[in-house]
């Protein structure tokens, strides 16, 4: 077969030399920009989103945080005073009654501290949490606003990550960094500073000696956090790239399923995760965390030893007169240590918040060349009587992604007012580029474009776009009602704000009448208030297109742009839509871009473009008379035979079209009714998330979730075990400290020489304890970082794999939009990571401390221990548990709502050209703001109650201390306890109470991790066993066979699972012999594409049998079916990567294991009529395709898709509208490729083609004509024409009379 590059190929070839270089430069610039930016500066910048109220709330909360942080040092001061009272009692200076009297006073002061901490904690936690919601709401909104204001080039460039992930995950991380974690950081820092402040006030010299540990700690923290932020930025960039891939893959899930490309996509996703792992490993992230933790705690415990050693020496020399002052200084170091234990994990959260904010601000700070939200520019009062005059004068333009490749070079074109101008030409000639320039998606590099004499770049961009409306090839509708979608056309116009609801409805109805949509809309269950589903899924292609036309004309635009508005429609839908377009084009300037030349033959002027230049223009008759470029295009489409259609033939066509339109309207009525029933049924289903695809799983508690995670992460068993032992060791240090401290206090009652020697010994013990902490905390920090990174990456892969392998109906769920799925892909593993990092180690440490301290208290003094363990701790634990339960309910609700709001953002970005054309930016911002406002209202109401219990859990420890202080002192005064018993039990109680309070600081991590784990488990459980398996079974004859597949359908019936009452196929029977080339034709919604879905087993029949090679398809492994089939869809799906990688996807999950040389790939390209083009590229098969394959033209993408399908040597080739969206030249090449395959693969491949363009299936062995789920005609092209029935009428409508 001869291969040709064609005009489009020639133009695209020229782009490839420059694209890679341009992208490399852009990536390098952005990388440099990231390196130059300050992540910590980004963290501080988050607070700038405070309004006046926000600053007041933050100020009050911060004051309360500081006050709360001072309370423990104040307790230390009072305890130091009590030591002096205690010594007086022990030396006999005071009587037992005097001792008990002073004891009561000090115990009462603890109660005062409890009240103060409860009130202050409640105020700051509530205020800062509320304000964090307000601030991150403003941040999310600003990010979305700046995203929508970007020029189209921003969205066409790869590497900006998934918007849904950024707006959800990054904003959540930023929220964590400025909410409770910020408060705990301020509180702990205050405790650290205040503890030393109290110590300075008591004994400045000893404190100054002890203070030498602080600079060492601060230097280490500063260095480690700086390096950690750099690594975190790199890791998050890799995750952003992974999310972008996921967004592309989830949005084209049929292609992945059809080629069983799960393994290939999982490897691509894992490649991004491997980069993240490499950044963390090469950056020594675990080592940094180990250094951070061990240095802090070594210095602190060494500080204990230093303070005690010097304190004893100074007491011995007489420089210190009261032992209580030494205790105060030691306790100051203790409290400073406690502050740092809380600061360390919060610093990690702040580091992540800073990195996340940095990514958000990179988009916010990006200057857009064309700002869609700009208020600048001229707003003309009147422009022309009806339409507008458009002039392109010496316009030159090159796309930003390939600046060295000009599309236009001094192009001049006049589009007269109130006339219809059509532009035709091959792919890459610049037709759609003109639309992009008129819409100001891009700006010309030189020259000018004027509208009624005004340069369009001088006009207000909103005014311009509301007066130039666009109808694209692929109709994009938004989730909502018919009325809302049509009324979107008023966005940006004065009517949008001043008209009443009834006036808007009147305009909507008038627009629908003009677009020939009113009749079918009226037949819908709720009329104009009928929900049409995401992207208008409940309407047929023709109906969606008519709604889009109504939306485009409702604002009475001056100019109407029609970019391939009918190319993807079946004959009946095309005729009605074309009639609607002709109707609305009157008294407007209309620019039509068309591949089907039959749709523009009546245009006032037809412009033929080639290589960015006008080669000829004139009316249809004038251009036909010249016999040049346009004439050749007409011949290739067989248009000249249209003159044979007239009179009675035309009437029969009209009658047929009307019948089809009525039938489809009735069918859609039933579809939407069923959908409404389904929606009502869903309201009575269990809580969302409890069941996925009918697979119910328990809602595990957190311990069960952790057990499952630890069990299945076999590679982490050793790190988990080592981490657990290190955490237990660290937790055991606290009761050991209590024992050591009780001995320390006795030293001051010894004779001078003994006091010094024993003091030296106990100081050495403190240093030994410091060495133990050095080892334990270095292991804890190292292993917690190792576990954290592994969990985050591993479970991202698990979620990606689980979503990828869900059955097809999973993706039809309104809650499982691409944006929502990507948002949860990013959010849920991050929630697990937040817990299974240093947090889980600190929780184990706290639990060990709590248990060991309680045991020590009971063992040392059972009376006091019993009172405290069973009297004081249960209320504290109970308050914390109530908070966890309340927080869990809130988190479940907000996670779903945040995913929904992220879905709004994702939907907007994926349809950004439609959003820009309709000036919907402000409307979508308002809708997004409303979604965030709903979350904020719900969260704030819940926080008012939740934080009450949190504050109680944080302050009850003071009551426990008061009880222990009072009761223990009384036992001491009556001689029941020794001093050593009292101090041991009291310090143990002090530690256990603070440990219990500290535990509930992590409830947010606990609740989010539990929710995330259960979501992941449910998601994984929802994967059917057939889609989960990866092993091959070569013994199956279906898998090993190399001959073409035969197809037999016997009384086949089918209805989609979400609308089971609406049959799509009914009692359908057909037979396809092996090696045949058969075609399915008919009106939209008649069941053609459904048959493809059944053959691919995206769904199973509800009745009847579908046999492949004589075997019921149910009895054949799903993997074997899809591995022996290949699918080419209407919209070719390519992914970021090279041509080789995209073609290799045809081998499915065996691509990596297949020894496929370039020769075999080139042979597939030759069969697809694309090899000459590929070989001519500078990098050949290594040439990058760009985001969504946009480096290639439509025809080239389609031929690459065909080559991908042929590479696997399919036994059954499925072509679903493979040429409908192509221009004439591309269609000719692709059609030649299809017919070549059908001929050359005889005996090897059976070909089934779904087609609207009947010229593409004229040579089929059998043509099956579908109507309303039945086959009404079957035969060869000539045979069906001879019958002069339905197929004949369809051919007449397309000017194909034989």
From TrEMBL:
<keyword id="KW-0547">Nucleotide-binding</keyword>
<dbReference type="InterPro" id="IPR003439">
    <property type="entry name" value="ABC_transporter-like_ATP-bd"/>
</dbReference>
<dbReference type="InterPro" id="IPR027417">
    <property type="entry name" value="P-loop_NTPase"/>
</dbReference>
<feature type="transmembrane region" description="Helical">
    <location>
        <begin position="106"/>
        <end position="130"/>
    </location>
</feature>
<protein>
    <submittedName>
        <fullName>Uncharacterized protein</fullName>
    </submittedName>
</protein>
<feature type="transmembrane region" description="Helical">
    <location>
        <begin position="287"/>
        <end position="306"/>
    </location>
</feature>
<feature type="transmembrane region" description="Helical">
    <location>
        <begin position="720"/>
        <end position="741"/>
    </location>
</feature>
<feature type="transmembrane region" description="Helical">
    <location>
        <begin position="864"/>
        <end position="882"/>
    </location>
</feature>
<feature type="transmembrane region" description="Helical">
    <location>
        <begin position="947"/>
        <end position="968"/>
    </location>
</feature>
<feature type="transmembrane region" description="Helical">
    <location>
        <begin position="208"/>
        <end position="227"/>
    </location>
</feature>
<feature type="transmembrane region" description="Helical">
    <location>
        <begin position="840"/>
        <end position="858"/>
    </location>
</feature>
<dbReference type="InterPro" id="IPR017871">
    <property type="entry name" value="ABC_transporter-like_CS"/>
</dbReference>
<dbReference type="InterPro" id="IPR039421">
    <property type="entry name" value="Type_1_exporter"/>
</dbReference>
<feature type="transmembrane region" description="Helical">
    <location>
        <begin position="761"/>
        <end position="780"/>
    </location>
</feature>
<feature type="domain" description="ABC transmembrane type-1">
    <location>
        <begin position="721"/>
        <end position="1008"/>
    </location>
</feature>
<comment type="similarity">
    <text>Belongs to the ABC transporter superfamily. ABCB family. Multidrug resistance exporter (TC 3.A.1.201) subfamily.</text>
</comment>
<feature type="domain" description="ABC transporter">
    <location>
        <begin position="390"/>
        <end position="636"/>
    </location>
</feature>
<keyword id="KW-1133">Transmembrane helix</keyword>
<feature type="domain" description="ABC transporter">
    <location>
        <begin position="1047"/>
        <end position="1293"/>
    </location>
</feature>
<feature type="transmembrane region" description="Helical">
    <location>
        <begin position="326"/>
        <end position="344"/>
    </location>
</feature>
<feature type="domain" description="ABC transmembrane type-1">
    <location>
        <begin position="60"/>
        <end position="352"/>
    </location>
</feature>
<dbReference type="Pfam" id="PF00664">
    <property type="entry name" value="ABC_membrane"/>
</dbReference>
<keyword id="KW-0812">Transmembrane</keyword>
<feature type="transmembrane region" description="Helical">
    <location>
        <begin position="980"/>
        <end position="1002"/>
    </location>
</feature>
<dbReference type="Pfam" id="PF00005">
    <property type="entry name" value="ABC_tran"/>
</dbReference>
<feature type="transmembrane region" description="Helical">
    <location>
        <begin position="55"/>
        <end position="79"/>
    </location>
</feature>
<keyword id="KW-0472">Membrane</keyword>
<keyword id="KW-0067">ATP-binding</keyword>
<dbReference type="InterPro" id="IPR011527">
    <property type="entry name" value="ABC1_TM_dom"/>
</dbReference>
<dbReference type="InterPro" id="IPR036640">
    <property type="entry name" value="ABC1_TM_sf"/>
</dbReference>
<dbReference type="InterPro" id="IPR003593">
    <property type="entry name" value="AAA+_ATPase"/>
</dbReference>
<feature type="transmembrane region" description="Helical">
    <location>
        <begin position="182"/>
        <end position="202"/>
    </location>
</feature>
